[in-house]
Amino acid sequence: MSHDPTVLDATVRVLAEAAPDADQTGQFPWTGVRAVHAAGLLESTVATRYGGEGAMLSDAAHILAALGRGDPSVALISAMTIFNHLGQATKGHWPDDLYRRLLAEAKQRPLLLNAARVEPELGSPARGGLPATIARRTTNGWSITGRKRFVTGAYGLTHFLVWAHTDETASRVGTFVVPNGLPGIRVIENWKSLGMRATGSHDVEYTDVEIPAENVLELVDPSVAQQDNRGHAAITLALTAIYLGAAEAAQEAFIRFAHERVPANLGHPIARTERFVALSGEIDLLVSGARQIIFGALESKLDEAERLIRARLLAGRQIREAVQMAVRGIGNPGLNADLGLERHFRDIQSVLVHAPQEDTSVSILGRAAFDRWNRAEAAQSGYQKTLSILKTA
Questions:
Q1: CA–CA gap between residue 233 and residue 316 (Å, rounded)
Q2: Fold match between 5-110 and 247-370?
Q3: What's residue 390's pLDDT?
Q4: Fold for domain 247-370?
Q5: pLDDT band at residue 373 under the 50/70/90 scheme
Q6: Domain Acyl-CoA dehydrogenase C-terminal, which positions (predicted)?
Q7: Which of 55, 99, 172, 243 could pair with 351 as two cysteines, CB 3.0-4.6 Å apart?
Q8: Cis amide bond preceding 5, omega within 30
């Protein structure tokens, strides 16, 4: 599956033109989101059985990398919906009638879905624990009460996918589909991040919000409700493609500056100096290398969690370092908003903040390495015992 590159490029240009203002105001980036919707990109991963294009995860990552070059905040808001359609394509966990109604809505306006999982007391579900948010049974459905943090795109979402536990005698945990705009929903404007400002990842409070009985996905026993950090490794790696796009935009800004800057004492662009040639090479090594790492991993087996986690960490660290190098290399002009580099620098700091965070991911790799060694030791010990028995026989 591949989108028309002309349409994708035009969409990226719209995002890039609107990005500085969206970053400064922190308002919901409707200009960019509407452009993504108009290009048909939000529904790119809708399954063919629903009349969609059936794009796979690697296709989605290519789209997100392109959108990230324009505005990573718009790309992140878009990613949440794109990944939800992909989840339905692969797992089919949405009630069919409800999902088809949402697809019908998507023909009229941008359908924007996002999970509301993190809570003030619990923190990220990636670190374990169950939600305090409660879903109570009502005569006609469910009533949702609780508070969620870091709800990306809060103001513009059409539906919140709220993680909550039920008030049943044997409590269950699940995701409740809550349409935005219902009575009892309050967005608490507390997103004051260094970067990714236009994501509007505010807190959202739900107070006795009434939803229909069928608006629930995957109600399960709490014992099997923990977030699977290894199982989500492929999605998290694809998310990193957004920041790859931002790093590529930073690289382009660096190269343009190097060609346009002509110091009077030099008489030619600084791009012709050995220092900037070497800097350009180092930045390209990190950014283009990260692209190879991300898509090399996504275009092969997606069931090897450690390999995917390793790729995400390596790529994330590389692009973070590359943008920092570009800013440092240019000096004062690199910190000026006019060039755009400082916005890319701020946005790129979020690359490894998404759950599971860097320390959790590193711990997964560390335990896996220990487990491999223990298995090898056990196998060697078994071999030695067998050998000893054969010698004495």
A1: 14
A2: no
A3: 77
A4: Butyryl-CoA Dehydrogenase, subunit A; domain 3 (1.20.140)
A5: very high
A6: 239-355
A7: 243
A8: no
Query: Using CA atoms, how far apart are residues 152 and 80, in angstroms rounded to an integer?
Result: 8
Per-residue buried b or exposed e for 147-157, using 16+ beta carbons within 10 Å of the residue's own CB = bbbbbbbbebb
Number of residues that make up the chain: 393
**Rounded CA separation 235/245 (Å):** 16
Q: For residue 385, what pLDDT is reported?
A: 82
Pick from 247, 241, 193: nearest CA to 23? 193
Residue 123 β-bridge partners = 119
CATH of domain 5-110: 1.10.540.10
Cα dihedral: 232, 234, 235, 238 (round 10) = 150
Give pLDDT, residue 301: 85
Residue-level pLDDT at 380: 86
**377 vs 92: CA distance, rounded Å:** 42
